[in-house]
Specification:
The protein is α/β, with parallel strands linked by helices and 386 residues long. It is built from 16 helices and ten strands. It binds iron/sulfur cluster (2 copies). The site of one iron/sulfur cluster (SF4) has 14 residues, from helix 13.
Length: 386
């Protein structure tokens, strides 16, 4: 099989996202990860997705996958992120570091990571498109692509400037299909216009669509009592044309079991199911939840080490389901946990609360969902700290 046919004939569409691996304390639970990897492969799936910036993930890939399975039995994607580095050299060094950490020898898929309006020019300035082309020429990269979080006009511009790109990774899910901030449908259509295959990220919207509002759950249950809400979300995107892989960020063995069970013998959504999705989109269009996917891109540089996604998770209990008491309890737990795990010296310790935010806005520059984090933290403080 040639490299290009391999790209276009991925046998099973589900991809294993390695961003939210199970944890034991502060470390990744390697033993559980091994079981998840083994089950995924046993059921005929092959696509694994990590990134230089996912903490511990590339090392976990080496231990759970690379050192335990024949290299040709799976495909591995990783990503170079220039947004958080200060020099071209640092950006390019990420490639060698990823090779060393994973021990993969080469990457089947290599992506420039998380291109957005405020950072894509840096990838040009650092010559990273040519850098990736050189590595591809050298056989160290089989297929080159980029992941993208911006509007369809910019996507069109980048794909026109870089026709050499093999594939694009986009955020597509049924909740964001017509959401102007994410533009799932419009970006999908631009990528297809350029003839690119698509890797889908956030099909379950960071887990939010695994536990949608009650009205959506009931709607799905009426049509198919046995299908989990997550299965609806993943099958929706896998039913689109031109999908190379649908990434699901799996966090435990049970999720791997569930995802692989309905994707092993994948059936596209039928007409009745498509109608139910349209109704769910209508319901969610009125949802007040914060659209955080828990990617944690915002937390690294926060001078106050505020657990932003965990606070938003708690806040969504109040916003989506009116569970204010539960939201307050969860909020207290997450700020206490952040204080326990904080790395700063004792005398500099802060409370890690929403109200500690100093509005420096470094987090907002990293957020692929374009959430007005400082406004939402202010709202969380007013609601959950009283
Ligand atoms: S704006 Fe607030 S939450 Fe964001 S990085 Fe600054 S202090 Fe942290
Ligand atoms: S606030 Fe934005 S950057 Fe932070 S975890 Fe949520 S989606 Fe990711």
């Amino acid at each position: 099989m040639t490299d290009s046919t391999r790209l276009y004939t991925n046998p099973q569409k589900l991809g294993f996202g390695l961003m939210r691996l199970p944890r034991r304390g502060l470390s990744i639970d390697i033993e559980q990860t091994k079981k998840m990897v083994d089950l995924f492969l046993e059921r005929g799936f092959t696509y694994f997705d990590t990134a230089f910036i996912y903490p511990g993930s590339e090392d976990a890939v080496r231990k759970a996958l690379i050192e335990r399975h024949p290299r040709e039995s799976f495909t591995l994607a990783t990503k170079l992120n220039a947004a958080m580095v200060l020099t071209e050299k640092q950006a390019k060094n990420e490639f060698e570091t990823s090779l060393r950490r994973t021990g993969a020898g080469y990457f089947d898929y290599y992506l420039l990571h998380s291109l957005m309006t405020n950072n894509y020019k840096k990838y040009d300035r650092y010559g990273l498109w040519d850098f990736v082309a050189e590595k591809k020429e050298a056989g160290l990269i089989k297929h080159a692509g980029f992941s993208f979080h911006a509007d369809p006009v910019l996507l069109d511009e980048i794909l026109t400037a870089h026709p050499e790109v093999d594939f694009v990774q986009l955020q597509i899910n049924y909740a964001d299909w017509e959401n102007p901030g994410i533009a799932s449908r419009a970006n999908y259509e631009v990528a297809r216009k350029h003839g690119k295959q698509i890797v889908v990220m956030e099909p379950v919207k960071g887990g939010n669509l695994a536990n949608p509002p009650k009205a959506v759950k009931e709607l799905f249950r009426k049509v198919n009592p046995d299908a989990s809400p997550a299965s609806w979300a993943i099958r929706f995107v896998a039913s689109l044309d031109g999908i190379l892989a649908v990434l699901s960020g799996m966090s435990n063995l049970q999720q791997t079991e569930d995802n692989t069970s309905y994707m092993q013998h994948f059936q596209p959504l039928n007409d009745e199911e498509q109608k139910a999705i349209q109704e769910a989109q209508r319901i969610l269009g009125h949802s007040a939840s914060i659209p955080c996917t828990a990617c944690h891109y915002c937390t690294d540089g926060c001078p106050k080490q505020i657990p932003i996604p965990e606070i938003f998770h708690a806040m969504n209990k109040h916003l989506a389901n009116g569970q204010t008491k539960e939201a307050k309890e969860e909020y207290q737990e997450v700020v206490d946990a952040a204080a326990r795990e904080a790395k700063e010296p004792a005398k500099l310790q802060t409370r890690h609360m929403a109200s500690d935010c100093i509005v420096c806005r470094q987090c907002e520059r990293q957020c692929p969902q374009h959430i007005r984090i400082t406004d939402e933290l202010k709202r969380a403080a007013q609601t959950l700290e009283v």
